[in-house]
Amino acid sequence: MPQLIDATDREVWNAKLARIGEVDATCLADYHLAYALRVPQSRAVLWHYSLEGQELVYPFLLTPVILGGVDTGLFDISSAYGYTGPLATTQAPDFLQQAWQAFDTFAVERNLVAEFIRFSPFNRNEHLAHPLTTVLPNRDLAVTHLPSNEVALRGTLGPKTRNMLRKAEREGLVHRELPLPDHLPAFRALYEETMRRNNAPEFFWYDDAYWNHLLALGSHGLRLFGVYAGPQLVAAAMAVAHGRSGLYHLGASLTEYAKLGAGNLSLYAMSCGLMASGVTFLNMTGGRSARADDPLLLFKRSNANSTAVFHIGKRVLNIAAYNGLSAQWQRQHGHEPDADKIIFWRK
Length: 347
Prior knowledge:
- It is built from eleven helices and 13 strands.
- Helix 5 (about 160-170) crosses helix 9 (about 260-275).
- It folds into two domains: about 5-130 and about 315-335, Aminopeptidase (3-Layer(aba) Sandwich), CATH 3.40.630; about 140-310, 3-Layer(aba) Sandwich (Aminopeptidase), CATH 3.40.630.
- A hairpin with a 2-residue loop joins strand 10 (about 230-240) and strand 11.
- Helix content is about 35%, strand content about 30%.
- By secondary structure, it is of the alpha+beta class.
- The chain has helices at about 10-20, 30-35, 95-110, 150-155, 160-170, 185-195, 210-215, 255-260, 260-275, 295-300, 320-335, and strands at about 5, 45-50, 55-65, 70-80, 85-90, 110-120, 135-145, 175, 220-230, 230-240, 245-255, 280-285, 305-315.
């Protein structure tokens, strides 16, 4: 029978995930609680369906549709800013058909109008989507398939990156894992300086509540790796990890140390640290845009050993209500909503 689990019920949520098997680190309850703060009025939930020993789970943010400052009584659902989507114990067509039929009933009962999904390149679960979901390749990601030791890892990296690592070591830069939460203030200071320098949008600035939720992932779930020039922290990489799945979550560095390879060394330290704890798939994520020549993507790719395609999914669940929202938007703004943005009422 279907069940809706709130992310505040961490033990129940994570126990349901555990029954699926290996899952992307961003599927965890505390990660969803952190990112629910990024979408006003949203609630992080896990929809669970079981039948004859088989199970499907679907984590998402449930958010009221506010248009023109008015609550419409409708809701949209979207993946957390990460890589999630539906997960199941089986790919059997009959089971998936019944699961999605049950979800459609849930959608009607909860006045759901549209959904946006970010699928996991670790779980490669885009094939589990509802049959009416439009699944699209969005962009390339840099990923590393972690081997068994550091010598093998360094050998999978490109010659330019290996040169930068050697340069960083010659310059006396050293790396080490930094225990959390003790080193969080230093990382936040470095991160915020980096965001100011890059004129980062508001979305990439995080408050205390966000950090507290991430810290709840624990010492195995949230990892921090720093690079030092003497006593000074000059670069750092933060990762979220779960089982064999790792995600490069946030990074920061001082500009003057970039040419010395500090950024490369922080990513290498992260890769080595996660590899040592059993992670085999590290998602370095993508660039600031979907362009193949995006500078950030190219930097990440140079510090990874492979790529993966990031897929998204879009579906209108209530066509009449959706068309009504579109017409209302057009009356308020004088033009049609962006056709590429299915949840167009979001700021």
